[in-house]
Amino acid sequence: MIIRNFNKTVTSQLKNSRNLESGQTSKIIIILALVVLVIIVIAFGITKFVTNKKEDASKPSNSSSVTNNPPEPPKPVYEVTLGDVRFLLQSSEDLGKVIKSKSQYEKDLTTTEKFIRVVIAAQNKGKNNIAQYSWNVGNIVDSEGRNFLPINSYSLQPKPDLCGALLKPEFEPISCVRYYEVSKISTKLKVSVRATVPKKNDGFIDLNLNYLPSPPPPSVLPTPSTSCNNNTVCDTGEACIICSPIPGEGCSGCVDCGFCEVQP
After folding, report:
1. What is the predicted pLDDT for the residue at 230?
2. Are 108 and 202 members of one domain?
3. Structural domain span for residue 258
4. Which parts of the chain register pLDDT below 50?
5. Residue 189 to residue 143: CA distance in whole angstroms
6. Which of 141, 167, 197, 257 is the most interior residue, by most CB within 10 Å?
7. Which of 65, 95, 117 is at the close of a domain?
8. Are residues 240 and 194 located together in one domain of the fold?
């Protein structure tokens, strides 16, 4: 009897010991699994951090991109709408230093700087008539803010002078011609325009100047002859100046009046 009880006790203790060892082994496995998981998370985080650093290093900085790619200059504006009035540049021309008079009562206009001829068209985009003097073409302004007023010369203005004329809805644009005397050092010229319908608005149109070519050296031009036969008809602003070396042929060509002294 005593031996049986002893055997039962021993067997019970052995079972308890095995259960304890099994529980401790499970805990150890769980702890190891957690440690491995933590190590994986840390390794992933380090890898991601290093990858981001490399990507940031490969990207150009904002300062370098700004330096390498400067902003583009604004494009010229050749048309602007103020209220119901549409303005557009028809032509602009550098006339040089001389404007020949169209009247026998006025002398030629000369300057040490340069003359500019500007033609701006105006069109009514509204539904009602735009009254006379409700729009206008004003001063020329250069890149330094210098203002140059239109030349007040009766002989230069076309007849009739349509600047500020009545504008009817969606009629063909009306041309306004202005002449200016501008400093020879002025650049990036703009002309101001104004409309007062339905309210006062001001704007600017860039000038696309067609500069005159430089005249040939004096040695290239033949000496004008007083016996030149001016039978050739030249365009406005031009004159017959070079006489043909062949007798009887008279004028051999036309040149711009501003290039040299012309024969009458």
Report:
1. 46
2. yes
3. 217-264
4. 64-65, 211-231, 243-250, 252, 257-264
5. 7
6. 167
7. 65
8. no
pLDDT (0 to 100) of residue 25: 72
| DSSP assignment letter at 156 | T
For residues 11, 16, 20, 26, the Cα torsion angle rounded to the nearest 10 degrees is 80
Computed from CA positions of residues 19, 20, 21, 27, in that sequence, does the dihedral angle turn out positive or negative?
A: positive
Name which of 162, 171, 148 is nearest 86 in CA terms.
Answer: 171
CB-based contacts of 219, cutoff 8 Å, min separation 6: none
CA distance 141 to 201: 17
Residue that terminates a domain, selected from 65, 92, 116: 65
**72 in a structural domain:** no
Tokens representing 155? 């002989």
Which two three-digit tokens encode residue 37? 């998981």
Give the span between the Cα atoms of 232 and 262, in whole angstroms. 14
Helix intervals (H) in the chain = 2-58, 62-68
Please report the pLDDT score of residue 214 as a whole number: 44
pLDDT of residue 52: 72
